[in-house]
Amino acid sequence: MFRRSFHRFCAAEEKRVGTRTVILGNHPVSATETYIAPRFCDNRIVSSKYTLWNFLPKNLFEQFRRIANFYFLIIFLVQVTVDTPTSPVTSGLPLFFVITVTAIKQGYEDWLRHRADNEVNKSTVYVIENAERVKKESEKIKVGDVVEVQADETFPCDLILLSSCTRDGICHVTTASLDGESNYKTHYAVHDTNALCSAESIDNLRAAIECEQPQPDLYKFVGRISIYNNSFEPVARSLGPENLLLKGATLKNTKKIYGVAVYTGMETKMALNYQGKSQKRSAVEKSINAFLIVYLLILLTKAAVCTGLKYLWQSNPHNDEPWYNQKTQKERDTFKVLKIFTDFLSFMVLFNFIIPVSMYVTVEMQKFLGSFFISWDKDFYDEDINEGALVNTSDLNEELGQVDYVFTDKTGTLTENSMEFIECCIDGYKYKGVTQETDGLSQTDGPVTYLEKADKNREELFLRALCLCHTVEIKINDTVDGATESADLTYVSSSPDEIALVKGAKKYGFTFLGIRNGHMKVENQRKEIEEYELLHTLSFDSVRRRMSVIVKTPAGDILLFCKGADSAVFPRVQNHEVAPIKVHVEQNAVDGYRTLCIAFKEITPDDYERIDRQLIEAKMALQDREEKMDKVFDDIETNMNLIGATAVEDKLQDQAAETIEALHAAGLKVWVLTGDKMETAKSTCYACRLFQTSTEILELTTKTVEDGERKEDRLHELLIEYRKKLLHEFPKNSRSLKKAWTEHQEYGLIIDGSTLSLILNSTQDSGSNSYKSIFLQICMKCTAVLCCRMAPLQKAQIVRMVKNLKGSPITLSIGDGANDVSMILESHVGIGIKGKEGRQAARNSDYSVPKFKHLKKLLLAHGHLYYMRIAHLVQYFFYKNLCFILPQFLYQFFCGFSQQPLYDAAYLTMYNICFTSLPILAYSLLEQHINIDTLTSDPRLYMKISGNAMLQLGPFLYWTLLAAYEGTVFFFGTYFISQTSSLEDNGKVIGNWTFGTIVFTVLVFTVTLKLALDTRFWTWINHFVIWGSLAFYMFFSFFWGGIIWPFLRQQRMYFVFAHMLSSVSTWLAIILLIFISLFPEILLILLKNVKRRSARSPTFELPTLLSYKHVDSGDS
Amino acid sequence: MAMNYNAKDEVDGGPACAPGGTAKNRRPDNTAFKQQRLPAWQPILTAGTVLPTFFIIGLIFIPIGIGIFVTSNNIREIEGNVFMYYGLSNFYQNHRRYVKSRDDSQLNGDSSALLNPSKECEPYRRNEDKPIAPCGAIANSMFNDTLELFLVGNGSYLTSIPLKKKGIAWWTDKNVKFRNPPGGEIPLEERFKGTTKPVNWVKPVYMLDSDQDNNGFINEDFIVWMRTAALPTFRKLYRLIERKSDLHPTLPAGQYYLNITYNYPVHSFDGRKRMILSTISWMGGKNPFLGIAYITIGSISFLLGVVLLVINHKYRNSSNTADITI
Predict the structure, then answer these.
(1) Which of A697, A549, A574, A704 is nearest to A633 (CA)?
(2) I need a surface site. Which of A49, A548, A726, B160 has the fewest CB within 10 A?
């Protein structure tokens, strides 16, 4: 909120669109131009929400924006202004308590943020001013300042690298704290400024940087630097993300750098990226709100009924104002309408406890404390990364027990994402296994040897391509020099595939030794070192699905090497080369390997000149750079020669199959959304038992669709056909679908990205809808769906589509890479895997776990328990407050609807705060109605709570009726018991406060014992809080009635409790009433038992997981 | 959770950690609490545990019920001390305006409250510019009929039955909660100086009784009246008739004559007055409800026990597992 307004303030000078011009060092560039320094925001990071003076008003404002708090505030204000039955303290105190606790918590959190902010803002930086190195606080940096950063320091703002004080003008940074990638990334200085290596020389530099306005994408930056040398014409150089050093990243392996600040403070990319995620709300929360409305209606009805009856009753004058109870003159003079209104409000106040303020506190506490159990679980601990599960939002704990659809990424989630080079094929000849050191490549793997081999030159070309066409770096240890020659090289790259390929090449004798001054060094099979000048890198992106490098061989030839997905490469090579390699590629894909095709092309010097010019031009472009680059890349990567293909294996994660099977058994639908290609993905799906051998696969892919003349017609046909098949299989009752799965033929659907977009963006207006709906119908009937060739946004699109299905199912997305972030954010619950592709997914997720297999326990055990606990908590809260207020309501019929409270104010206040709060909190944290081990081993238990089962109308009615019954018993039981002269053996009479206290005592005992009856897992904590609460109630009552309270006008509770307990009859009555109240509950438990018992077949056994489906289908 | 990255990065800043420093072990503690494996009693309601409970409840409740019922029914016999109650009906002592119309500080003898009673007492707070003591509607409407009981002897000769005024209020009320204004030896009238009597009263509060120990705020009739009843039909203890000797019944059989000095108007609000004579047992006055309820609940439990036993027996025959798990 505040931050947003802060931004607005910052950017008030200029609109966000367009570009900004940064003048280096804020020196006027030329004497002729009058230079007005534009205003940018300063380099202060403000993550805190409050300051000391605005904390109170702002925090209060924010708290009272919550509907519940606002309601209680209104009640409190009514109590203060109108003459109400209970003192304002009764609702003011709890509200005050809640508000204070929340304020303290938020204040503390903000203090932490302030401290962290200060640490960043006050940290020392060195700025070059007037040719001198000036020590400054970080927050003082202005846009345009030249900053010096030393090794292992973090960058104080977003900088354009000017000079790294090395010959090649590169520096290494790690962005671990930004995206979690701990590898070293190389950033480049512009050639022209690279030589400036001292404060003086930098200070003499006159340059202006033109760049886009800040935007949150970490990997995008477009800018241009104009350097004003002595000549009049400025030299312009393009700037890209490789020139931009981001705030938060750390300088590594480089002594110092000079950079100019372009984005500062809240406009840095890091700050823009950490803007709050949209709040996700759980289904339980929605249920609570629904119940709240029901109870509000009950409250309003009660108040209205009472008001109506009151005036009916008062129409008889001797009821309205008998001689013994006259009104004051003021009361008589009040307008009747106003009186009716205040009476209505008074009744509202009297009954307002039906909506307990403490429920919100308890729910919050339950969620907050409960989430610790996830991060504490040692089963989620992974040795390799030395980390356990992480909870980012505790609001969604119970949603884990409600998931209907699971969307999972494939690479890194189902699979390890630790790539291993398996084989390659060169010119259609297959190579597998390790070569002999002595003579090049040979087959040593297994008895079957391929005698044919590709041409030696082709072999070497292929391996050189592997060595050159990548963005792998060598991790240099402490010493900058020398390490390159050491025997074991550590390769680092953002993509594990590339490492596997480089290592693969090494196995065949070609070792990549690193880049030095723009030259790539490769050691060939003859141990000679070849140096290639790296001219251009046409970097990888997920749209092109390929990358290329242009290098100059030692001989002076210019070569382009390209590697990419088969679909991206095949159309760009000579046709005759494709066929032999395609066979291998397809075979590899079926085996579940990831394949890449390698191609090359020779570029003549003339052509190169043109290409070079085009590339530089595109790079320099300020507008639409992306499109221009793409176009140039597209032009360059044509007419290539295919050399071969590689196959890399991505191992399945540990227990991935078991987990998927368990999820299936739990009634969840698992969809795999992957960017990978169909064959690979399909085989992975079979491997992890998403598809069984018996599953009939329906395919909606480019392959099947393109058979027909017109794609859409064919698609339409297919859709109709599939739907017919499925509808025939599942007759109408889609409700029993979950059961139906196990009984019928299973179907799996495979769809790819392009077909999906065809379905979703069909041109036919009328048809588009029906396409989509037919597609959804098909999807819903399939056990498993595989979506391949998905772009990140398409993943989110699918999730959104399913989310909006009828009955709005709960979706869960799990993934590990940056490409899964959109789907993680889109789904109800997002789970990140702390994988190898950085931490972006984990950071944006609600929960993160180290491995896919942990999903099983997370959902089946934790999710189930959390849901059960919170559902019970919610129901119990409404129940206990209805019990509490109903006698008060009934009492109105006996006290002339005069709003006389039945209970003392202290009891009204303490009931929810002290007497009945801790047992339910302990229950909602510790209860395990089913053992954790049983929950994980029998996934079907998960179905029992699906569809928010415990918060549906049925259970809600049950609890409400139970509460109504008990409330009636409390009141009328006491009523009948007090129909006597005296309850004591000395004949003395009791008054209305004793009456109320009897009801209240029965109430406190009954609701606590009801919880005790529900508790199936009695730890010492449960014992302590349940019996402790009751003991506390007794103690408090004695204490409260034991003293003449000096500051109270009324001593109505004086000795009431002690006097009450001195009577045997009261004891007997209390015991009796407690028992009568609990009787139906006990009876119900027994009846349920008997029913279940009779329903249960004698030979029932918990099926073991793997054979579960067979057992089940055999059984039913 | 907007930008708590700073704090977080400090913790898991990974490579930013000082080189050589030992990596923090993030392995979760293997404690029973954190792993949700605290030793716990997991009660499983089985037929074996539930059935005896039902029988036991039945066996306990039925005798208690019978005991209460019998005691309650015997109360009629006028033996031992007899308690004399007056009853009012349709009198809303529990009306909110009425309940709060009192000043406990004043009644507790607080001097400032005596002369400046609480606002809650309105419109019975001041009269003729003097504070009312005791103030408020409750005090003002104190029951002021006088009941006298005579035994009609031979030849219409009336023997007055001695009625004891003291011992009818709660001990704590009489001795702690209600106190006359301070003053030690000063006569009560002086201590109430500056106040006036409630409007409806005939006599001021310091002339309620001749016995100084039962006069002023600590008059027991007054204290009893001040304990507001829970329901519009109520009884209040009026007098005790103590048993003189074990040989004679407290109230021997015969004709009695009740003399009522009628002061208290009830017709205006459709009220009724009653006088009740009752003995009291260990469980208080006569009340059949408690006994019947105990007997009923006990019987139902017992019956259910039997029914469940039968059902359980049937299932035991069909399957060998005796447990019914929840």
Answers:
(1) A549
(2) B160
- Closest chain A residue to the Cα of B139, Cα to Cα: A324
Q: Closest approach of chain B CAs to the CA of A740, in angstroms?
A: 27
pLDDT digits (tens, 9 = 90+) for B163-188: 999 999 999 999 999 999 988 788 88
Q: Which residue's entry shows tokens 């304020």?
A: A103
Q: Which of A42, A192, A395, A409 is catalytic?
A: A409
A800-804, A969-973, B22-26: the lowest-pLDDT one: B22-26
Q: Decide if A377 touches B, using CB distance below 8 A.
A: yes
CATH code, A418-433+455-476+500-651: 3.40.1110.10
Per-residue pLDDT at A440: 40
CA A22 vs CA A25, A141, A236, A618, A1016: distances in Å: 9, 13, 14, 22, 67
Do A971 and A887 form a contact (C-beta atoms < 8 A)? yes
Tell if the CB–CB gap between B57 and A1075 is shorter than 8 Å: yes
If you compute the radius of gyration of chain A from its CA atoms, what whole number of angstroms results?
37
Across the interface, whether the CB atoms of A1072 and B290 are under 8 A apart is answered yes
Between helices A864-892 and A283-314, what is the axis angle to 10°? 0
Listed in sequence order, the residues at least 6 apart from A1102 whose beta carbon sits closer than 8 Å to its beta carbon are A934, A937, A938
Phi/psi of residue A912, each to 5°?
A: -80, -25
Residues in chain A with CB shorter than 8 Å from the CB of B13 are 176-177
Do β-strands A558-564 and A546-552 pair in parallel, antiparallel, or remain unpaired?
antiparallel
A87 CA to chain B: closest CA distance, Å? 12
Give residue A1012's pLDDT band: very low, low, confident or very high (50, 70, 90). Answer: very high
Strands laid side by side in the A19-23 sheet = A19-23, A207-212, A223-227, A235-239
Question: Does the structure show a pLDDT above 50 at A1002?
Answer: yes
What is the rounded distance in angstroms from the CA atom of residue B240 to the CA atom of residue B165?
7
Query: What ipTM, to 2 d.p.?
Result: 0.91
CA A267 to chain centre: 24
Q: Is A594 annotated as a binding residue?
A: yes
pLDDT attached to residue A709: 59
Chain A residues with CB-CB distance to B318 below 8 A = 1098
Inter-chain residue contact A981 with B286, CB threshold 8 Å: yes
Q: How far is A930 from chain B (nearest CA, A)?
A: 9
Q: Which of A73-87, A300-314, A479-493 has the highest mean pLDDT?
A: A300-314
Query: What 3-state class would DSSP assign to B242?
Result: coil
Q: For the whole prediction, is pTM greater than 0.90? A: no
Q: Residue A72: is its pLDDT beyond 90?
A: no
Taking the domains of chain A in order of start, what are their residue ranges?
123-273, 404-413+654-727+747-759+773-827, 418-433+455-476+500-651
For A448, residues 6+ apart whose C-beta sits below 8 A from its C-beta are none
Cα separation of A752 and A702, whole Å? Answer: 7
State the pLDDT at residue A515: 79
Percent of chain A surpassing pLDDT 70: 85
Check: CB of residue A267 under 8 Å from CB of residue A141.
no
Segment B82-105 mean pLDDT: 92
- CATH topology classification for A404-413+654-727+747-759+773-827: Rossmann fold (3.40.50)
DSSP state of B320: S
- Rounded CA-CA distance A1076/A972 in Å is 12
A296-350 confidence digits (pLDDT tens): 899 999 999 999 999 999 988 888 889 998 888 888 888 889 999 999 999 988 8
Is B283 within 8 Å of A1068 when comparing Cβ atoms?
A: yes
d(Cα A841, Cα A340) in Å, to the nearest integer? 59
| pLDDT exceeds cutoff 90 at A903 | yes
pLDDT digits (tens, 9 = 90+) for A725-738: 777 665 544 444 44
| Angle value at C-alpha A877, between A876 and A883, nearest 5 degrees | 85
State the architecture of A123-273 in CATH terms: Distorted Sandwich (2.70)
Asked if A444 and A453 touch (Cβ cutoff 8 Å), the reply is: no
